[in-house]
Design brief:
Blueprint: H1 3-13, H2 22-27, H3 33-45, E1 52-53, H4 66-71, H5 73-76, E2 78-81, E3 87-90, H6 92-99, H7 114-121, E4 124-131, E5 134-141, E6 146-148, E7 151-153, H8 158-167, E8 182-188, E9 193-198, H9 200-203, H10 206-215, E10 224-227, H11 235-238
Parallel strand pairs: 1-3, 9-10
Antiparallel strand pairs: 2-3, 4-5, 4-8, 6-7, 7-8, 8-9
Length: about 240
């Protein structure tokens, strides 16, 4: 593929609808600002001439990474120089299959749940409660998240999660979910940023914020933005002066 073809494919994978000429893709004229940034980054990253893509390596039998291809290809896809000197624009899974030394059979365990390993490493969207110093999380790996407009989010709501916690005896049945400090993580597909929305009383506890970031496997700033939201305010914060 050529540079402009890869840029066009990348925009399509990110669910843009542009059909731009190679000239427009080269100079970024008349394009929305977020697309303009993606195109400029790819124009700088991609070499001229023929470029191989993951499609050229289907014989490896490796499933491509959905995050690299669909969520943030301008960030996670990479240009690699192959042993024959050619250039390739490939995702993390194909890159590992091509460039990492092959493991010896006798070094491999009998079974490795790679989907499970991959799910643990993926950033997550989801909901949290902080109650009596304990963190309660219900989350979904980003590639299994549901789409709500331009946002990838977790299907379950705070009310349902709180009922589950009450049913198993983890929390008191005398409190309602909206009395408890809480928050949510979602992913903006256009900004390519994770948003961590937290009650102000959680934000005042930096160690708890770090614990939530770790539990959700969130990337560092600027790819994760931490802020408040009017939906996530416990009574204490709602009626606190200046809050």
């Amino acid at each position: 593929m050529k540079k402009h073809e890869i840029i066009q494919l990348t925009l399509k994978q990110m669910q843009h609808e542009h059909k731009l000429s190679p000239e427009e893709l080269a100079d970024c004229q008349g394009i929305a600002c977020d697309d303009d940034m993606v195109i400029a980054e790819l124009n700088e990253l991609l070499p001229s001439g023929d470029i191989k893509t993951c499609l050229n390596f289907s014989d490896l039998g490796v499933a491509c990474c959905p995050i690299c291809h669909s969520v943030s290809p301008d960030v996670d896809m990479r240009v690699e120089t192959l042993p024959d000197g050619s250039k390739a624009w490939i995702c993390c899974k194909v890159r590992s299959a091509l460039l990492e030394p092959e493991a010896k059979v006798d070094e491999l365990p009998d079974f490795v749940d790679m989907e499970g390993v991959f799910a643990v490493l993926l950033p997550k969207v989801g909901i949290v409660f902080v109650h009596a110093g304990c963190l309660w999380v219900d989350s979904t790996p980003i590639d299994d998240a549901i789409r709500y407009g331009e946002v990838l989010t977790h299907e379950k709501g705070h009310a349902d999660f709180w009922h589950e916690l009450q049913a198993c005896g983890a929390v008191s049945k005398d409190e309602t979910y909206d009395e408890v400090p809480r928050g949510r993580v979602c992913y903006d597909t256009r900004e390519r940023v994770y948003h961590l929305y937290l009650d102000r009383c959680i934000l005042r506890d930096q160690e708890m914020v770090k614990k939530i970031i770790g539990a959700m496997t969130l990337p560092s700033a600027p790819r994760t933005e931490i802020t408040t939201d009017s939906h996530y305010r416990c009574p204490e914060c709602m009626f606190r002066p200046g809050e």
